[in-house]
Design a protein that fits this description.
The chain is α/β, with parallel strands linked by helices. Helix content is 49%, strand content 12%. It is built from 9 helices and 9 strands. The strands form 2 sheets. It has a 7-stranded parallel beta sheet with strand order 3-2-1-4-5-6-9, sandwiched between helices. It has a two-stranded parallel sheet with strand order 7-8. The longest helix is centred in the middle third of the chain and has 29 residues. It is globular and about 50 Å long. It starts with a strand and ends in a 13-residue tail after the last helix.
């Protein structure tokens, strides 16, 4: 049975991945910043799957000591960790770079970039000791260099993460480890929607674009989980959406009417 650890997995894509791996027969350790979040996420999963395959542990990825504790907790329980996914992250408050507070900038960089660096260090050390394992970093908007005004801080961290991941592939090429990246495409989560809480007019405009290019978590994560489990190649980027697919979605938009925000759809 494959054992998976996913940081930032009490909601959004991380939770969707946990759900999808469990559906494929894996054992999963979820984590979030608070015990309460982990408890709620675990209860949802245990309601669907065997409780013996679900583990939860609070971890703030901005603290390397907490990441080490997460590794030890999962390793002690399962005996080994097959796959570690650095998924935890946050977006900046939408706005020009010079408008963001130093605290906001610091938190985004620490969560998205340093958190993945710390997580990779801990997982690599542990997996080298056990002799095998796979590590994946969750990329996102900005990983390929494209820029979106108002979100360049977030994009900067993902661009840096792409460089870091590719560097890890080179540095680990003579080891038994698999290092990879995950690009889920635009996925509807509260990471996106809460940015528009106080801007209803902007939200109505944004929704039109999201309904063309975005997908729901429950559509994306089973696809990702299957490919992560099958992949044996270090350096692989498991990407849900190509440029051609995006272009096709725009071309089909007039005929293919979607409302991703309609719960009944």
């Amino acid at each position: 049975m494959q054992t998976i650890v996913i940081t930032g997995s009490t909601r959004g894509i991380g939770f969707g991945l946990a759900d999808s791996f469990l559906a494929l027969g894996c054992a999963v350790t979820i984590s979030g910043r608070t015990d309460e979040a982990v408890k709620k996420g675990g209860e949802k999963l245990v309601a669907k799957y065997d409780a013996g395959r679900v583990l939860g542990h609070a971890c703030d990825v901005r603290d390397p000591d907490q990441i080490r504790a997460l590794w030890q907790f999962a390793k002690s329980h399962w005996g080994h960790v097959d796959i570690w996914i650095n998924n935890a992250g946050q977006s900046n408050t939408q706005g020009m770079a010079w408008e963001l507070s130093p605290a906001d900038a610091k938190s985004v960089v620490e969560s998205n970039l340093l958190g993945a660096i710390y997580g990779s260090q801990v997982a690599i050390q542990g997996m080298l000791e056990q002799g095998y394992g796979s590590i994946y970093n969750m990329e996102g908007m900005g990983s390929d260099g494209r820029m979106h005004p108002g979100l360049i801080l977030y994009g900067t961290t993902k661009y840096g993460l792409n460089y870091f991941t590719r560097g890890l592939v080179k540095e680990s090429q003579h080891t038994p480890l698999v290092i990879g990246a995950i690009r889920p495409g635009m996925v509807v989560t509260d990471l996106i929607t809460r940015q528009y809480d106080d801007r209803p007019e902007d939200w109505e405009r944004a929704k039109r674009i999201f309904n063309i290019i975005a997908e729901r978590v429950e559509t994306v994560t089973p696809w990702l989980a299957e490919r992560i489990l099958k992949n044996q190649k270090s350096g692989a980027c498991i990407s849900r959406v190509s440029r051609w697919k995006l272009l096709l979605r725009f071309l089909l938009a007039p005929i293919r009417k979607r409302d991703l925000f309609d719960e009944g759809e």
